Structures are given as C-alpha cells and as structure tokens.
Amino acid sequence: MDATTRRRLGKVLVFAASLIPLALVGADALRGRLGANPIETILNRFGFWTLTFVMLALVPTPLQSLFGWKWLAPYRRMVGLFAFFYGFLHLSTYVGVDQFFDWKAIAADVVKRKFITIGMLAFALLVPLALTSTNAAVRRLGYARWKRLHRLVYLAAVCGVVHFVWRVKADLREPLVFAAVLTLLLGLRVASYLRARRQHA
C-alpha cells in the first residue's frame, strides 16, 4: 500500500471514528438512555466532544515541530472541522431544544451567565477557522495570514476550557483534566516556537 492510499484510508477511518460520539448519542436517545434530563445530557456530551476535538486538533503541530512526527498532520484539518461540527451541535441543542429559539432568554443568558458568555465566544472563534479550512482559503489569504488566523484555535481552546470549568458546579475532575492537557499542549507549542527561533538565529 503506497503512502497516498494509506493517507486516504486513514482519513476515512478518522472520519468514521469522529462520527461515533454522534452515533452513540442517537442510539442512547432511541433507547431512552439519556437519563432524567436528556437535554442536559446531550448538551454535556456535545460540549465534551467539542473540546476533545479542539484538543486533538492542537496535537499535530508541536509533535511535528519537536519530534518530526508528520504522520498526524494530514488529519488535523478534518479533526478541527469536527470540533466545529460538535460545537455547532452543542450550540444548536442549547438554542433550539433547550431554549426553543427564545432569543430574549438566550440574550439574557449570554449577558448574565458568564459560562455561556465565554462559551459563545469560544464557538465564535471557531467559525472563521471552519470557513477558511479549504485549500482555496489558504491560497486566497496567503499562507502567512491564514496561519496567523488559525492561531485563534488556541484562544478558542482556552475559552472552551474556562466555559467547562465555570459550567461545572461540583465535580471539577473532567474540566481540570482538559485544563491540564491544554497547558501541556500550549507548553509544547511554546517549546517548538523557541526551538525554531534558536535554529534560525
């Protein structure tokens, strides 16, 4: 199997695996296994997977810079788009199912509840990244500008983690795990940046 075929097969497998969380939510909904508050369960699951895919999208760059691991790079864009996809499902569930398009109540929530405010900001930061995820967008913007724009993913990740921490009222174990992972990834990114500067000095 040549490299191109392996890469295509890898993308198919990553795409299929990325749909598993959605399939599990659908299966649990059909079987009535979403608990006493199914809307909250769905919101929590989609939010969890949004943040998970954001973290996964941050992995390839520092690993490639520090260790030369290039095999993850072809999947980074797809993983990032799935982060946006699950973020969109998370937001749509809140707007359409939880609030039933009550825009006045939604606006009040955004203003008064800080975890919703920063959650909205996190999603807003993902929107331009999703819209410029194509090769055509890279050519139109120029690689340097496109790369600077897509650094917004780090800010989106920080906002997403803060959203999770502020959302959880009691058990902080999961959000703190995400915070630790994000800290590690940001540390690796800084290390790769400093290494590149030393090499070009």
What is the gist of this entry?
This protein is mainly alpha-helical and 201 residues long.
Describe the structure.
With 201 residues, this protein is mainly alpha-helical. It has one domain. It is 83% helix and 0% strand. Helix 3 packs antiparallel against helix 10, helix 6 (103-112) crosses helix 7 (114-131) and helix 10 packs antiparallel against helix 11.
Largest sheet: none
The share of residues in helices is: over 70%
Distance between the termini: 41 Å
Query: Pairing-aware structural class of the strands and helices?
Result: mainly alpha
Q: Roughly what fraction of the amino acids lie in strands?
A: under 5%
Number of helical segments with 4 or more residues: 11
Q: What is the general shape?
A: globular
User: For the residues shown, what is the average pLDDT?
Assistant: 93
Query: What are the segments in which pLDDT stays under 50 over at least 5 consecutive residues?
Result: none
Order of helices and strands: HHHHHHHHHHH
Count of spatially separate domains: 1
Radius of gyration computed on alpha carbons: 18 Å
The total strand number stands at 0
